[in-house]
Amino acid sequence: TGNCQAESLRLLLEADDVFTPSRLKAIADITDRLRQSDLTIDVQSLATAFNIESGFGLIGYVPLAASPPANMPDASRMRRRAMENPLIVGSLVSRRSDTAAIVVSIDASWSGADARPAWEMVERAIAPDARHFANAYQIGPARFITETEAAIGKDLATIGVISGLLMLAVLFVSMRSIVAVVLPAAIGVVSL
After folding, report:
1. What 8-state DSSP symbol labels residue 87?
2. Whether 64 contacts 50, CB under 8 Å
3. Is the four-CA dihedral 159, 162, 163, 164 of positive or negative sign?
4. Per-residue b/e over 30-61, b at no fewer than 16 CB within 10 Å?
5. I want to staple 24 with a disulfide (CB 3.0 to 4.6 A). Which of 10, 67, 68, 77 is the partner?
6. pLDDT value for 106
7. Residue range 61-69: average pLDDT?
């Protein structure tokens, strides 16, 4: 769409083996859900990966799999093809086949204030298929910003309570009267 700026998020899916029919189908389904978002520019995963192959004097891009494999022999063939491709191993799947990555490029025009929709979009894409994996989580700026804001908000609430109690204790110690504590506290509550 003319915008060359993109922010990259990564979704990591861990299991004892990601090359099973159900897990490869889950990866394809998550990829499809991510592609449907207005925030998404591109999505790369085992479901979208291509192999560069040559034959008969021609070089071409061939999908790693046209669709998720329906059985273990097809999943094993997909694993073999993926492991033979140095562009896939280490970027979309680990060498031990226990982690798959989905790389999501989202429009970089969003700012920190818009990080939550990007984070939520990825979380919604993961949720229906998370049960297929031991761990499914995202890494990247949207998660970092969203979780940092939540932690700060929680800390500010705690600090507010602690500072209010500390103020009341200081008033009591300095004035030595419960009225001197209750009266300013009541005025403060009423003024809010």
Report:
1. T
2. yes
3. positive
4. bbebbbebebbbebbbbbbbebeeeeeeeeee
5. 68
6. 83
7. 85
Strands (E), the chain: 6-14, 40-44, 50-55, 58-63, 99-107, 135-139
> Phi, psi (5° rounding) for residue 157?
-65, -45
Is 192 in a helix, a strand, or coil? coil
Distance separating alpha carbons of residues 104 and 39, to the nearest angstrom: 10
Is the CB of residue 82 less than 8 Å from the CB of residue 88?
yes
Residue 125 buriedness (CB in 10 A; 0-12 / 13-18 / 19+): buried
Tally of residues, the chain: 192
Mean pLDDT across the stretch 83-96?
A: 93
Please determine, for residue 164, whether its predicted confidence score (pLDDT) is greater than 70. yes
DSSP state of 47: T
Q: 3: which 2 tokens? A: 């915008």
DSSP string for 103-124 = EEEEETT--GGGHHHHHHHHHH
Averaged pLDDT of the chain: 84
3 state SS of 175: helix
Token pair, residue 15, equals 């299991």
CA angle 67, 70, 76 (to 5 degrees): 90
Contact 112, 145 (CB under 8 A): yes
Which residue in this structure is represented by tokens 């520019």?
41
